[in-house]
Each structure stands twice: as structure tokens, then as C-alpha cells.
């Protein structure tokens, strides 16, 4: 996944443009900026690459989710359906607006189970937020049908799946809104940054204002601009946008390397009797940032994970026990542990996460191992790694069979 493996001259060129002019902010200072508008240029290029009408850059992926929800008018007490397996940003962004996260099970795609989504809909539901974890997508056709039937907003969190597609369309462009992160470990990075994409002009206008204190951005005197509604500061800087612009030009090269490395690794592990792979919904193409596979039981997955790490096969994640990406580790959410008082709507509306039954999620998460696909592996490294991982898994599964 990591774009940080491939920095080079493109990023430097754009950065130098910004540093030479000294204008580090994306708005104003027209006379000083030598014609450089890196954030604007990145937005245009990204919208084009994602085949959508609009892109709004912001300061992080978490900011992108917050701005996207706000731009669709989601606020206090509204329910947003999200998966049990995701990054903490999902519920952080929802709760930042006083909205209520409704956690539901994932299935063998490691993303939202459409049946669980359907069962969770109430008259307060406003939005369904699938998270395309580890490079592959939710069953978007099924989710779209549910959203259409109930008039809900479909917001794709594509932070971990940049470059993947669904029936030929870029992930993030299928729903009403799509969000991306360019933090330091994502497919492309600008240090910290994020993006919202949409074909809805109203959402774009709202996002543009909300991420910059509600400024309407009419005219060229910031001090005289109108504020049709309240906002916040989720702006990206020209420095970050400059790095992102350089990285974006490498995206196809990054994806091609990931696909090659993923395919070799998958072919090797596919020979191991007892290993199965995550289901990719029909019509979907992964971005190949992770290889996700299942062992026959949670006990074996745990053993295999430990053995892989001990043997030096790094970059393998057992998310089930990880404190950041799965409900098991979110004690602070279960306890609604804010620094101050949480919004009343959240306190009243949130399900009891201490007692909720997520055994279907546990079933898949407990058996899953995710292997990060690195760009920097050379042929020999890749071959050795594939051999080593296969023989470790073979050993553990064989022992289990006797
Ligand atoms: C990284 C990530 C985010 C948040 O991105 P930041 O830029 O780190 O705030 C949100 N959702 C998912 C699935 C992510 O992986």
C-alpha cells in the first residue's frame, strides 16, 4: 500500500514551486504565487482520475469523512450504518457531528454484510458507510439497492482501496460520496491529507465551504466573503497538495507493482491445502494493497500469525486482536469515553456495544490474516517470502490434520 516507498523528483518539483513562491496556503495571495495552485490542480487531476465531477481536498481521511457527512446534511441524532471492521475514523467522524454510529456485521468480503445493513435500518437512518478495507470492496450493488429503496446516502470509505474498481468504475465513485486518505501509509501519500469525491454539485459546494469555516469563496477578498453556514478548518496546505500531486502521477505504476507482487504471493499461498481467500464481490477488482486469507479456525490463524512474525515474514496483521481496526479493541467507544460530555443524541441513540452480538464478524475476523503488499520487494525477496510463508502455513495445517 505505501506510497512512501516511492518518493522522487515529481514530488520535489511541485514542492519547489511552492517553496519558491512562499505561498503555503491554498487560498489567496494571487500576486505572489507565480501561478501555482497545487491544491486546485490536485483536485482537478484527482476528480479526472476518479471519473467524478468534483473533488474536495482536505487535511486527512478522517476530515474527508467528516466533511462528506456534513456536506450531505447529516447531523445530531442521524444514524449512520458502519462495519465492525474498519479504522476508528469511521465512528470518530460520525460522532464529531453528533450523529450516531450503528455498527453491523461484516461477511466473508471483510466489509459490510448487506443483510445486516438491511436489518439495522430505522426511521433515523440517513447514511450507509461501507469501508473498503485492505484493498477490496463491499458488495456495492446490493448496498446501492438498499440505499435506493430507503432513500439513504451511500458514502464509500475508499481510504484503503484507492485504484480498485467495481464494474469498471473507480472505488469511491460508485456511491453518492467517496472518501480517501493520503496519510503516510496509504497507497499514495502527501504526509497528511484526504479527499472527498462526488457528482453532486450541492455536496461539493457544501464541502468547499464546510472545510474552510463556512467561507463561500466568492470574490477574492477573504475578509469580505459571506458565510452561509457554520464550518470548521479542515483545509489542506499547498505543501501537502504539492506532494500529493507528485504521488498521483505514480499511482498507476504503484498499482501495477502491487498487482504483480500480490499475484505471485497469492499463487504460492493458493497451493497450501486449507488456505482460502477473501471473497471479492462480482465485478470488483482489488487495488492489491493487501493479500487477505483465511485459516480454518481462529486458533490456527492465531498460531499462523505468530509463526509468520517469528520467522521474519513481516507486515502480517491479525486484526482480530488489534486495538485499532476491530470492535474487540474499541473499549473507549464501548464506554463512550469522551474527554467531556458526549452529545445527548449519541448517548441516547447508540446501541449497547458491550452486549451486542457480532459473532458473524468474529467468525471471519478470527480466521483472517492480512499480508501487506510492499512495492520494494525484489524478485528474490518475493520468492523467498512466498516460499517461507507457504511452508509455515503448510506446517501448521499439516500438524492440525494429524
Ligand atoms: C487511514 C484511514 C482513514 C483515515 O485517514 P487519516 O488520513 O489517517 O485520517 C479512514 N478510513 C480508513 C479505512 C483508513 O484506512
UniProtKB/TrEMBL annotation:
Pfam families given in the database record: DegT_DnrJ_EryC1
What's the superkingdom here? Bacteria
Q: Name one GO molecular function term.
A: pyridoxal phosphate binding
Question: What does the entry give for GO biological process?
Answer: polysaccharide biosynthetic process
Keyword Transferase present in the record's keywords: the answer is yes
**Keyword terms of this UniProt record:** Aminotransferase, Pyridoxal phosphate, Transferase
- InterPro entries listed in its UniProt record: DegT/StrS_aminotransferase, PyrdxlP-dep_Trfase, PyrdxlP-dep_Trfase_major, PyrdxlP-dep_Trfase_small
Q: Which family does it belong to?
A: Belongs to the DegT/DnrJ/EryC1 family.
- The protein's name: L-glutamine--2-deoxy-scyllo-inosose aminotransferase KanB
Amino acid at each position: 500500500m505505501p506510497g512512501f516507498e516511492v518518493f522522487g523528483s515529481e514530488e520535489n518539483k511541485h514542492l519547489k514551486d511552492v517553496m519558491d513562491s512562499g505561498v503555503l496556503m491554498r487560498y489567496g495571495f494571487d500576486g505572489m504565487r507565480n501561478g501555482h495552485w497545487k491544491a486546485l490542480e490536485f483536485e482537478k487531476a484527482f476528480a479526472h482520475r476518479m471519473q467524478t465531477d468534483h473533488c474536495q481536498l482536505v487535511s486527512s481521511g478522517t476530515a474527508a469523512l467528516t466533511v462528506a457527512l456534513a456536506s450531505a446534511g447529516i447531523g445530531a441524532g442521524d444514524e449512520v450504518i458502519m462495519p465492525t471492521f474498519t479504522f476508528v475514523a469511521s465512528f470518530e467522524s460520525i460522532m464529531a457531528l453528533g450523529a450516531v454510529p450503528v455498527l453491523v456485521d461484516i461477511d466473508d468480503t471483510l466489509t459490510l454484510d448487506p443483510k445486516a445493513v438491511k436489518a439495522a435500518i430505522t426511521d433515523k437512518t440517513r447514511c450507509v458507510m461501507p469501508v473498503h478495507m485492505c484493498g477490496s470492496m463491499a458488495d456495492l450493488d446490493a448496498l446501492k439497492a438498499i440505499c435506493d429503496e430507503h432513500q439513504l446516502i451511500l458514502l464509500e470509505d475508499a481510504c484503503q482501496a484507492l485504484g480498485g474498481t467495481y464494474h469498471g468504475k473507480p472505488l469511491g465513485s460508485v456511491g453518492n460520496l467517496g472518501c480517501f486518505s493520503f496519510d503516510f501509509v496509504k497507497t499514495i501519500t502527501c504526509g497528511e491529507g484526504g479527499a472527498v469525491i462526488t457528482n453532486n454539485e450541492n455536496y461539493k459546494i457544501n464541502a468547499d465551504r464546510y472545510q474552510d469555516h463556512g467561507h463561500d469563496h466568492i470574490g477574492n477578498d477573504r475578509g469580505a466573503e459571506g458565510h452561509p453556514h457554520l464550518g470548521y478548518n479542515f483545509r489542506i496546505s499547498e505543501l501537502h497538495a504539492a506532494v500529493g500531486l507528485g504521488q498521483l502521477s505514480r499511482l498507476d505504476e504503484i498499482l501495477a507493482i502491487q498487482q504483480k507482487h500480490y499475484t505471485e504471493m497469492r499463487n504460492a499461498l493458493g497451493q497450501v491445502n486449507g488456505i482460502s481467500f477473501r471473497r471479492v464481490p462480482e465485478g470488483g477488482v482489488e487495488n492489491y494493497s493487501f493479500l487477505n486469507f483465511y485459516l480454518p479456525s481462529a486458533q490456527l490463524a492465531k498460531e499462523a500469525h505468530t509463526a509468520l512474525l517469528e520467522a521474519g515474514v513481516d507486515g502480517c496483521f491479525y486484526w482480530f486482536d488489534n486495538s485499532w481496526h476491530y470492535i474487540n479493541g474499541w473499549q473507549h467507544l464501548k464506554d463512550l469515553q469522551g474527554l467531556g460530555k458526549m452529545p445527548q443524541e449519541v448517548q441516547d441513540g447508540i446501541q449497547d456495544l458491550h452486549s451486542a452480538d457480532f459473532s458473524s464478524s468474529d467468525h471471519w475476523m478470527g480466521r483472517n490474516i492480512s499480508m501487506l503488499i510492499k512495492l520494494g520487494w525484489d524478485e528474490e525477496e518475493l520468492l523467498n517470502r512466498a516460499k517461507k510463508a507457504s511452508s509455515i502455513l503448510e506446517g501448521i495445517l499439516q500438524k492440525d490434520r494429524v
